[in-house]
Amino acid sequence: MVKDSGPLPGQGKNRKDDATKPPPRETHQEVLSAQVTDVLTLLLVFRFINAICVRTFFQPDEYFQALEPAWKIAFGGESGAWLTWEWDHQLRSSLHPAIFGLAYKASHMLMRTLLFPPQLESFILVVLPKVVQSVFAALGDFYTWRLATSIYGQSSNVPWAALWMTVLNPWQWYCSTRTFSNSLETTLTIAALYYWPWELLADAKVSKMVPLQLKSSINRLRLSLVLAAVAVLLRPTNLFIWISVLTLTLTRFTLDGQSPLQKSTIIVLLREIIICGLFALAISAISDRLYFGFWAFPPYKWLYFNISQSLAVFYGQMPWHYYLFQGIPLLTTTFLPFTLIGLYKSTSRSSSLSALPSNVMHTLSFTVLTMVGMLSLVSHKEVRFIYPLLPILHILGAPRMLEFFTTGPPPPPKSKDAKAAPVKVTLRHKLSLANILSINILLATYLSIFHQQAPISVLHFLRHEFERLHPESLALSPDINGNHHVGEDLFALFLTPCHSTPWRSHLVYPALEARALTCEPPIHTEPGSPERANYMDEADRFYAEDHNPNGGDEEPKYGIKFLSQELWPIVETRLGESANSTLRRSRGGKMPRYIVGFEGIEGVLTAFFEGGGKDAPGSDMNVRLTKVWSAWNGAFNEDWRRRGRLVVWDTGVYLP
To answer: Could you tell me the pTM of the whole model?
Structure first.
């Protein structure tokens, strides 16, 4: 490997064999800079390809906690963006969606100036967030490699092993280019860890330099603290990472050597923490003021609703060991054995590294254990919540992976006159390596292209249909009268579990009116109250079992009661004003051109509109369902309501 400068200060100085090693041949600084630039460029290209290849749906937060508020920022409150309850109650920081909102706005202005056709502009706007996120994903990979290089040295092959692990990890391929706040949090965290002044963990007996005395080291500290503060503002649980790092830095609990911290160093550290924290907080406050229209502090609201009001439980509860037996294995997949061994080795005293790198590794492993331990106490758990730990796990596992798949370097020469033998790396266990790579590639390919691809492609179908049927209503901004030239009352109705598809970020056009089942939490109820225990949102009520909905002996069905009583209820209209006037009963509510749902609801729709002839509740609505589109949605799904193909039915009530 090309050698360059930049290992942690004091690295290797207390090893007995260092005195017997010949001085390493220095590499020109321009070569080192070119290597760093080349790696970053390749990562940017790689993650761009990654972003374009990911065409599947994972979780709603990718769209509803980032792109929907971003769409409102770019195109205004009348743009049709779907803002969930968190934004109504200021639980989320606007910093994350502001990134995509500015990208939307700038791109729209440029394309409007260049007279792009609406169809091309809509395509670019749909792809744009993934392209922006690919830059953050590449930076996350880059800083993983750079931090590993700082720890193990630039002449070591271990940083390259860490880089290959992050590039070949299927979870990284599947999630790093998605617009989750967790994805940005991961990049901010590993970048902040890279710029953190790890010389604070040095052994004062080996390194005589007092930390944080140089302007360059203070500037790196400031950059680290600002990045860390933004990560905490995006996801308050990120605070556990920095509490762990600061705890070991100040207490040196379980670390080797004597602390180099002096009173002046601690004062500088605390001063910069306060200044940088207030700076990030001010930026966030201004952004939130511009977005919400009033001063707000989302971290407080987040804590209040999720802890005091226990609303996180509404979205599911997992056992305490979820992260141990599901979270970390899903993050690391085939690299799990190497990360577990690396995690164990970094906590032991058997490390061959010098004091400073060993202390850094020990701190990183302590951070992983603390974060997992604290989040395990929370009832609602998701793999994404520990995503920021993945780069650390790669760095910890890289030496173990390198040891297993390559031959070790030759022993150091034993005399000053002995010549250093060239380090030759030879692969071994090639079959195991090929199996790991094959599994990772297959997993990444299936998850990013095939698994739950239908929720994305159905919106492309609807958008293209709208472009075909209403070419005059494709403006993203209202006309001079504030109208969007809506072509009809309701273009699409989604009878799917809540947030089963993206929304305006893929539907694009404000005139394309759509309706979907909602799932707002019971924020109006008290924790532990009967009202909360019995609460059912729209999606729950639709899928609730109806016993004998038509008064017959047929098997129980779901959905018909919801359709007949809530979605299209009976409306009585009095004909005439005389005493002999009659009442006309008909069904109210908007009738869509298209109904979207998983194939399991086809029997429900047929029973409501057509089944039993005149006895069907919706027989007088003149609906004749015709299947016009369907797509496979993956080989498995843990939610029975989402199993099977995703289907679009034409109701037949509008002219083609």
So the answer is: 0.90
